[in-house]
Amino acid sequence: MPVTRAQIIRRGLLCACPNCGSRGLLASWFRLKPACGGCGMDLAKSDGFYTGTTSIGYVASILVVLIPACVLVAKKVLSVPVGIALGIGGSFLFVVGLYPAMLCWMVMAYHVALPGDLPANRDPS
Ligand SMILES: [Zn+2]
Question: Is 25 left (phi over 0), alpha (psi -120 to 50) or beta?
Answer without folding.
Answer: alpha
